[in-house]
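Budget justification aside, the reviewers requested a transparent look at the raw inputs and outputs of the sequence design task funded under Objective 1. We therefore reproduce one unedited record. The lines immediately below are the structure tokens for a 174-residue chain.
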């Protein structure tokens, strides 16, 4: 049993060490990944035909359009509330945005987060802020919160594409 277990543990350890070597370690790496996710989100949006923007698989979930607006709105809201207040230049009150308007909102929301993050010092990134439910995390962790939220909902959008017989853009993470 131990003869089998040791190679498995060693292999797992080597795989994880490779992951950590490539993990985000600074703001430049975050910005690079963030800009990639901006482009990937836009590609997903562009893959959905205009006449399918209001598609939803069941009545009690957001439509594709609403999900895209949610990603853009959450980027702006979390950056404003937990990083630094600013103006993103996006009107998210308009519920019937065209695909071009959605694309612009997504791009501006990602740019707003990138600019906000770039404006923070290392000391500010290390400061704790109160987020949802009274939890306290550093602003650097907020970056990951914003990123993770987008990852979650891009996954939803990919399912929506597939349910409509549309091949989603190839995944990339950096």
């Amino acid at each position: 049993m131990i003869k089998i277990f040791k190679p498995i543990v060693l292999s797992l350890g080597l795989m994880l060490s490779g992951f950590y070597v490539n993990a985000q370690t600074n703001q430049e790496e975050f910005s690079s990944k963030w800009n990639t996710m901006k482009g990937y989100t836009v590609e997903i949006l562009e893959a959905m035909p205009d006449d399918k923007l209001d598609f939803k698989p069941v009545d009690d979930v957001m439509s594709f359009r609403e999900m895209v607006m949610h990603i853009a709105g959450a980027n702006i809201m979390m950056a404003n509330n937990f990083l630094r207040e600013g103006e993103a230049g996006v009107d998210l009150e308009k519920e019937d945005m065209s695909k071009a308007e959605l694309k612009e909102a997504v791009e501006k929301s990602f740019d707003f987060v990138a600019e906000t993050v770039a404006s923070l010092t290392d000391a500010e990134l290390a400061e704790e802020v109160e987020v949802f439910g009274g939890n306290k995390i550093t602003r650097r962790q907020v970056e990951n919160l914003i990123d993770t939220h987008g990852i979650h909902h891009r996954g939803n959008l990919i399912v929506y594409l597939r349910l409509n017989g549309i091949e989603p853009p190839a995944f990339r993470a950096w």
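The first helix runs from residue 2 to 21. The radius of gyration is 19 Å. Computational costs for records of this kind are itemized in the attached budget.
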